[in-house]
């Protein structure tokens, strides 16, 4: 009798384990996966709008590309890894133009002449604009070149590739996004080759970028408060070695981490209610 | 019962990734792959004499900067620019030969500097210079890349102070190791 009870217990235990396995496999796991996909999908930010002039002075407005897949390439003529990618982009533009692909090059060269020469030498068939500080900040600070973003028909940024990347990677991603409709987000999209830490999509905040105190969001302040806050920054010395006050340093050197930290700390103090 | 440990692993993975990303983001705020400092061969110089100085650059592993005379015309050359006061003139600046290397992004070999780089300069002090400290402002200009990406061109301030002393005072040599290797450099490539 005792051995029967043990056997029954063992069978029940096995059944419970099997039951839990199936519950996990067909109920819990898919739900978790769905949630993960959803959260990934919600993490895809909208591509920041920008308007730049192309090499002939014509306006390139990202908003005009609504409903298209955009390959946005930050590059420079002095950058070998950038140059090697260009022929591939020319081919992609040629092959997928009619399906809705728009390639836009944003050159980080200091002057337009070498870019123009390069454009003609390589018979580039897509628009190239001269980049500025604002557009690089909007795209999270372009610190290494080439950096290329792939934007879907819905205007979301789907991938960021830093460094020279094989054209087949872009082609695969572009084909996935071209197959989607303009309204829907492509939830199943995955960056080809995986996402390295430097390729995490982190975009800039226009409220900070376009602020009178660059890098500091003043939207919580009314005009009088903003003026008062700026006066406070003017009275503070920046200790980054620039010999300027914090406001001037912020305005002269947007990349200065010291003045940014000081200004942000001061804003926190400024916003703290006085007891 | 895979979901619990898998969730924990996901959470752990996400935390590690976030920490890594934060580290990268912090590092990206000031991507500095080249450290440069200026050194002198002695603690002083007499009026009418010359003194060797050098910019000593340490390039981070995996990165390179272009030769002063790059192999391809589109590459930005490495350059040490010195502005001298009236009493101290820059006689010449000597760059070492770069190393010819093949990179994934170029069909041709490129002449580059990697690791430690020493750029030497010879300064001449005017006979009429009064004893005192003379500051020379300068910038070290370079553009760094690794095998698959490039960083924007950088201009780093590299300043020098030259101590002009009276003829009777003896001079103490400094940085002998640096100037010993500079002496062995091929002097064929001189650029002002």
pLDDT < 50 stretches of chain B:
1-30, 184-192
Order of helices and strands of chain B: HEEEEEEEEEEEEHE
Question: Which outline of chain B best applies?
Answer: elongated
Work out the strand percent of chain A: 5-15%
Main sheet of chain A?
Answer: 5 strands, mixed
Structural class of chain B: alpha+beta
**Number of DSSP-assigned strands of chain A:** 7
Give the low-confidence spans of chain A. Answer: 29-40
Read across the widest sheet of chain A, the strand sequence of neighbours is 5-4-3-6-7
Q: Averaging pLDDT over every residue of chain A, what do you get?
A: 88
Oligomer: heterodimer
Strand content of chain B: 35-45%
Average pLDDT rating of chain B: 83
Could you say which overall geometry of chain A the principal axes of the C-alpha atoms support?
flat
Distance between the termini of chain B: 73 Å
Radius of gyration of chain B: 22 Å
Q: Which chains share the greatest interface?
A: A-B, 32 and 34 residues
Element order of chain A: H for helix, E for strand: HEEEHHEHEHEEHHHHH
């Amino acid at each position: 009798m005792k051995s029967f009870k043990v056997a029954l217990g063992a069978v029940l235990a096995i059944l419970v384990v099997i039951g839990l396995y199936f519950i996990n496999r067909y109920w819990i796991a898919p739900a978790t996966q769905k949630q993960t996909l959803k959260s990934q999908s919600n993490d895809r930010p909208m591509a920041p709008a920008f308007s730049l002039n192309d090499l002939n002075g014509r306006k390139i407005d990202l908003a005009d590309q609504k409903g298209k897949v955009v390959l946005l390439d930050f590059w420079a003529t002095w950058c070998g890894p950038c140059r090697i990618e260009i022929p591939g982009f020319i081919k992609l533009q040629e092959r997928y133009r009619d399906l809705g692909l728009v390639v836009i090059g944003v050159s980080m060269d200091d002057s337009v002449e070498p870019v123009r020469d390069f454009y003609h030498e390589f018979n580039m068939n897509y628009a190239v604009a001269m980049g500025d500080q604002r557009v690089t900040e909007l795209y999270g600070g372009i610190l290494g070149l080439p950096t290329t973003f792939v934007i879907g028909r819905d205007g979301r940024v789907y991938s960021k590739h830093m460094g020279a990347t094989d054209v087949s990677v872009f082609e695969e991603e572009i084909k996935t996004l071209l197959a989607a409709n303009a309204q829907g987000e492509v939830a199943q999209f995955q960056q080809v080759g995986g996402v390295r830490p430097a390729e995490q999509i982190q975009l800039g905040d226009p409220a900070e970028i376009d602020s009178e105190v660059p890098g500091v969001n003043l939207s919580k302040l009314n005009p009088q408060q903003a003026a008062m806050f700026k006066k406070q920054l003017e009275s503070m010395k920046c200790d980054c070695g620039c010999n300027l006050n914090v406001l001037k340093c912020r305005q002269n050197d947007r990349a200065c981490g010291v003045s940014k930290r000081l200004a942000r700390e001061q804003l926190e103090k400024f916003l703290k209610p006085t007891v | 019962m895979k979901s619990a440990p898998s969730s924990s692993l996901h959470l752990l993975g996400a935390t590690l990734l976030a920490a890594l990303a934060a580290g990268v983001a912090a590092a990206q705020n000031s991507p500095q792959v080249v450290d440069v400092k200026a050194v002198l061969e002695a603690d002083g110089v007499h009026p009418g004499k010359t003194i060797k100085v050098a910019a000593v650059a340490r390039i981070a592993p995996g990165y390179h900067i272009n030769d002063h005379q790059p192999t391809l015309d589109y590459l930005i050359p490495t350059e040490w620019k010195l502005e001298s006061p009236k009493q101290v003139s820059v006689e010449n600046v000597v760059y070492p030969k770069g190393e010819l290397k093949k990179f994934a992004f170029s069909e041709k070999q490129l002449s580059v500097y990697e690791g430690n780089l020493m750029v030497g300069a010879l300064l001449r002090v005017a006979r009429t210079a009064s004893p005192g400290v003379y500051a020379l402002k300068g910038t070290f200009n370079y553009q760094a890349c690794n095998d698959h990406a490039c960083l924007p061109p950088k201009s780093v301030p590299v300043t020098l102070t030259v101590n002009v002393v009276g003829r009777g005072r003896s001079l103490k040599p400094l940085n002998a190791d640096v100037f010993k290797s500079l002496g062995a450099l091929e002097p064929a490539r001189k650029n002002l």
